[in-house]
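Replying to the earlier thread about multi-chain prediction with a worked example.

Input:
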Amino acid sequence: MVEHTEGNATLLLDALHNEQRALHVAAEFLRAGRLVAFPTETVYGLGARVNDPDMIRQIYSAKGRPQDNPLIVHVAHRSEIDALVEHIPGAATKMMDAFFPGPLTLVLPKSAAVPDIVTAGLPGVAVRMPDNQIARELIAAVGVPLVAPSANTSGRPSPTQAAHVLHDLHGRIAAVLDGGPCRDGLESTVVSLMHPKPVLLRPGVVTAETLAEILGEDLVPADRLHSQRPESPGMKYKHYAPNIPVIVVGPNEWREAIGENSYILCGSDIQLSLPSFPLDAPGYYHHLREAERLGYHRVVIVCTPQVQQNLALMERIRKSSNNNHGS
Ligand code: TXA
Ligand code: MG
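Result:
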């Protein structure tokens, strides 16, 4: 039986202290067609059953997500991938052997069993096996793979804690499964195998260098594809932006950038003479949300050499600042 929630309240299910019960209730909601957010090692995802287009439509409206932005399918076991795809290219097998479960998403030729709403009409389906036991147990308990975008309102920083999900989506979804803070804190690396060579659609914790070593060839950056339609439609939208401006400066420019009420983030390889928070990938989105919640006027990010080495983090920082209009 699914528990009744009062009005439109979103239930917080504590998987840290009562995992079995929390998983049971979350799986019941999902089986009943109601959206549940759940933890992964990257960020929290907003889950719906892959074979239920009505439920998937609810994801788009709860998030305010553009309809042309496809969703990643999450599996508990590698064997579940067979029914989702036409075939698995050799390069995909090599990457799966190395990184499934893990923060890597592969776009593969989709089978007819995958509803078009999942891929927004694209010929490839994105598949990933999360390296988070609660996530995999939830998928296994529901009995079908779960589509899951990041569980934030479209355009906002991805949620790395259950409280972030509640902030954005309270009243719009049935429940959040609280599994504590996410390990990695940035979204998965996305690689497409829909081209003659593997294409990097989104940088992530699994680096392009590591993948190139495993594959014996370099990945093609997405912006070199010269294709007519966007390969990964999500990449063109506003992203990772809090409601206050995000200003990015180099290690020698921060004095001029810092005005009243700045929330300063700085790589731990440099010590500023002002109070600042250490900037790393797992904490990045949380800091953006904290700055906003505490009423700061802007976030100033000091991009030290250590921060610049992290290409996935740098891509998110660039987008947070480009897309922010301070509204
Ligand atoms: O770490 C993650 O990947 C998290 C957790 C919850 O798994 N999910 C996530 O989902 O970041 P989302 O929807 O916020 O971002 C998915 C990205 C988007 O840029 C989307 O355009 C791309 O993956 N994508 C999804 N399906 C695709 C497809 N069939 N072809 C090309 N790109 C796809
Ligand atoms: Mg997202």
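The CA atoms of residues 203 and 311 lie 7 Å apart.

Feel free to reuse this layout for your own posts.
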